[in-house]
């Protein structure tokens, strides 16, 4: 089996008496989309925050390409190739599409000489290539003028501009209508070859259309991991989470 690109080993995180992550282990393998589903409050965002470095676990570790990155900052993990997209948009809305994408590309570059880097042709080309890849052809448009769906495209482009080893996506379909969801689903489907995607998502149609594997979280713990068909058929999962659809 291929070595995991990104791996959580035994992550545990408590907020007071609440155990938000309960010995969570899962991995992301090359070429796959691994979806993480679970009811509100199950601990999905807390897991993402530990993978990306916003939250330090009380126990357990995070590994990128086999390297223990548990003590690394958010920035260092981003430079190493963990590319996160956010549930709530984190775009600079007064800047243009190209400026946002270039700033993301810059995060993936070595720090220093900001002004020179902003004029850097390589960086600009990397940003433009990422925008072209997601089909966003409006580099000089201010982000404030973009539709919700276009902002999602831009966020994916910004993750791409990091030249990621792994994407970590927090509810990318949130707030999109049917057409936007279909377009983003098609985009993500093609993206898994560039870097595997850990996909936290409430839209079950998107999850079942895209995921190679699904992990189900309930009350901080992963109660099942497997291919879509096995997860849909899993009695514990149906009882705990998919009950309304079963
Ligand atoms: N900083 C915090 N302090 C205290 N409790 C927190 C904190 N962050 C999260 N929690 C709690 O931890 C639990 C897990 O929350 P988390 O946001 O990870 O769940 P989730 O599965 O992402 O939910 P949703 O689907 O609603 O986004 C919840 O009970 C939440 O209230």
Automatic annotation (TrEMBL):
Membrane spanning residue stretches: none
Every ABC transporter domain range: 6-244
GO molecular-function terms, A-Z: ATP binding
InterPro entries in the cross-refs: AAA+_ATPase, ABC_AA/LPS_Transport, ABC_transporter-like_ATP-bd, BCA_ABC_TP_C, P-loop_NTPase
Swiss-Prot/TrEMBL keywords: ATP-binding, Nucleotide-binding, Transport
A Pfam family reported for this protein in Swiss-Prot or TrEMBL: ABC_tran
Alphabetized PANTHER family for the sequence: ABC TRANSPORTER ATP-BINDING PROTEIN (PTHR45772:SF2), CONSERVED COMPONENT OF ABC TRANSPORTER FOR NATURAL AMINO ACIDS-RELATED (PTHR45772)
Protein name as it appears in the record: ABC transporter ATP-binding protein
């Amino acid at each position: 089996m291929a070595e995991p690109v990104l791996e959580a080993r035994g992550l545990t995180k408590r907020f007071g008496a609440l155990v938000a992550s309960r010995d969570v282990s899962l991995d992301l393998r090359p070429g796959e989309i691994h979806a993480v589903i679970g009811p509100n409050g199950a601990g999905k965002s807390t897991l993402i925050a530990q993978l990306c470095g916003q939250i330090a676990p009380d126990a357990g570790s995070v590994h990128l390409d086999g390297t223990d990155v548990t003590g690394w900052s958010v920035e260092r993990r981003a430079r190493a190739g963990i590319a996160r997209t956010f549930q709530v948009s984190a775009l600079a809305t007064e800047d243009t599409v190209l400026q946002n994408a270039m700033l993301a590309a810059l995060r993936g570059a070595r720090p220093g000489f900001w002004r020179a880097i902003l004029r850097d042709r390589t960086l600009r080309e990397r940003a433009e290539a990422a925008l072209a890849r997601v089909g966003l052809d409006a580099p000089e448009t201010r982000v404030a003028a973009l539709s919700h769906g276009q902002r999602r495209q831009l966020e994916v482009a910004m993750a791409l501009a990091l030249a990621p080893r792994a994407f970590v996506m927090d509810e990318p379909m949130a707030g999109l209508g049917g057409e936007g969801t279909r377009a983003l689903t098609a985009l993500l489907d093609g993206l898994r070859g560039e870097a595997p995607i850990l996909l936290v998502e409430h839209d079950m149609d998107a999850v079942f259309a895209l995921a190679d594997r699904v992990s189900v979280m309930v009350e901080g713990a992963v109660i099942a991991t497997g291919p879509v068909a096995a997860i849909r058929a899993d009695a514990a999962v149906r009882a705990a989470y998919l009950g309304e659809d079963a």
